[in-house]
């Protein structure tokens, strides 16, 4: 998996936030051996979709695809979430997944 990083343009205004994001979240938590990057991506995408965190969801959908999840698997997870997290959340997530899938296939 390519090394993830916080948006570096944010370092000018929030250097500590970028530092802990890179070192703790992506440097430690994402690298722990208890879950594969693929599984961590599925958990992350599911939580972001369920909580309607659409600003971060697009980025993590791309990471999930890079970590080996397929569009079909992500679609199935989002469909499943619709019944637990709400229809609007699922529709927003599936719209973002379609956009990313279309961009990658172009």
Automatic annotation (TrEMBL):
Highest taxon in the source lineage: Bacteria
Domain Carboxymuconolactone decarboxylase-like positions: 15-97
PANTHER family in UniProt: 4-CARBOXYMUCONOLACTONE DECARBOXYLASE FAMILY PROTEIN, BLL4600 PROTEIN
Name by which UniProt lists this protein: Carboxymuconolactone decarboxylase family protein
UniProt source species: Streptomyces evansiae
């Amino acid at each position: 998996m390519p090394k993830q990083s916080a948006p570096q343009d944010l370092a000018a205004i929030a250097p500590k936030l970028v530092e802990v994001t890179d070192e703790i979240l992506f440097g430690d938590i994402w690298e722990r051996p208890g879950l594969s990057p693929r599984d961590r991506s599925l958990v992350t995408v599911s939580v972001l979709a369920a909580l309607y965190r659409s600003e971060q969801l697009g980025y993590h959908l791309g990471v999930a695809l890079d970590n080996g999840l397929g569009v079909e698997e992500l679609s199935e997870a989002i469909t499943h979430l619709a019944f637990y997290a709400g229809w609007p959340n699922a529709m927003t997530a599936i719209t973002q997944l379609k956009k990313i899938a279309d961009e990658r296939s172009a």
